[in-house]
Amino acid sequence: MPRFPEAPNAALIRATNRKGNRDTPSRRGHGPTRRDELEGPGRPDAGRLDLTQPDPAQPGPGQRWSTWRSVAKGQRGPEPVPGWLVTRDAAFDTELGILKTGKEADAFLLERALPPGTPTADPQEPVSCLLVAKRYRSLDHGQFHRGSEYTEGRRVRRTRDQRAMEDRKSAWGRAVSATQWADAEFVALRDAWAAGASVPYPVQIDGTEVLMEFVGTQEVDDDGGVQAVAAPRLTRERPSDDLLESYWEQLVHTMSVLARLGFAHGDLSPYNILADGERLVVIDLPQVVDLVANPFASDVLLRDCRTVCAWFAARGLDVDPDALFADLLGQAL
C-alpha cells in the first residue's frame, strides 16, 4: 500500500476550502482531529498544520496521492458511492494522526482533499472528507492470537495462498495471514453496508490497509478552526430510556442483517459499537464468523448475544439473550 513520507503527528488540523480559506466542511463528522480524542503518542509542541503546500500540484510531507483509482474496482466500496466521498484523482491523502491502537491493527485518521484552487465542474462536489485507515500488522508484529475459533471454515481465493497460510513459519504465509484479516473486514463491511446494516462505509482496501468512513462529529473552536471528534463507544454512554430502546432496535437490526448474510460479528460488545448521536454504528469486523462453515459459530453468536444483552439489561431494558440468539440463528438458517 502507498506510504506517507515524513508523516506529521499533528495535534490539530484545520480544514481548508477550495479557495484556500479556512472553512467548515459541509458534512457532519468530517473535519480535523482534536489531540485529546487521539490515542497513542503525540508531540507536546505539535501545532496546527497548514494543508497549503508550497507546490499545491505535488503531495507534501505526510501526504500521498489519493489511492481511489489505483485499486481495482472490486477493492472499492459498494455502489452507490456516498456523496461525501472525494473520488477525484487530483486529491491528496493527508495523514493527521493515530486514532486507536489495537492488538492486530492500528487506526489512523486521514483527510482526503482536493488542493486549494482545484477547479470543480459541480458546486456540490465534495472537496474534502475524513477517513479512517485501519492498517493490519503482520503476524511477526501483532499481539492478537488469531485462533481457529474465528478462521475455521474461512477460505481464501487462491489455493497456494491457503497452503501458505497453513505454513506459519514462512514469511509469505505470515504476510498472507495478515492480508486475510484485512480482506475479511472489508468484505464484511461491504456486504453489511450494502444490505442496510449500520456499519462504516468501506471506502477501499489496498493490501493490509482498509479505508473506511470516519464516524464522529465536528466542533468549531473560538478561532474558527474545525475539530473532528470521534464518536464515543457505547460503553461510555448513559442514554435516556427512549434512546436506549432505539439503540437496541438498531443493534438488533444490524445483527439480523449480519445473520442473514451468514455472519456473526464474533467480538461484539459495547466497546465495538459507536454512539454517533442517535445513530448506533457497529465497528471492528475482521473476526466475522461463518455461521454455516464454522463449527464454533453457534457458541460465538451466543456469546455476542449475551455480551450486548448484559449491557442493555444493566441499564434497565428487558432483553433476553437466548431469545435473541434463537431469532438470529433462525434468520441465518
UniProtKB/TrEMBL annotation:
Residues 60-330 form the RIO kinase domain. Its EC number is 2.7.11.1. Pfam families: RIO1. It catalyses: L-seryl-[protein] + ATP = O-phospho-L-seryl-[protein] + ADP + H(+); L-threonyl-[protein] + ATP = O-phospho-L-threonyl-[protein] + ADP + H(+). Residues 1-82 are annotated as: Disordered. It comes from the Bacteria. Keywords: ATP-binding, Kinase, Magnesium, Metal-binding, Nucleotide-binding, Serine/threonine-protein kinase, Transferase. The keyword Membrane does not apply. Residues 33-48 have a biased composition (Basic and acidic residues). The keyword Nucleotide-binding applies. GO terms for molecular function: ATP binding; metal ion binding; protein serine/threonine kinase activity. SUPFAM superfamilies: Protein kinase-like (PK-like). InterPro entries: Kinase-like_dom_sf (IPR011009), RIO-type_Ser/Thr_kinase (IPR051272), RIO_dom (IPR018934), RIO_kinase (IPR000687). Belongs to the protein kinase superfamily. RIO-type Ser/Thr kinase family. This is non-specific serine/threonine protein kinase. It comes from Promicromonospora citrea. The lineage of its organism: Bacteria, Bacillati, Actinomycetota, Actinomycetes, Micrococcales.
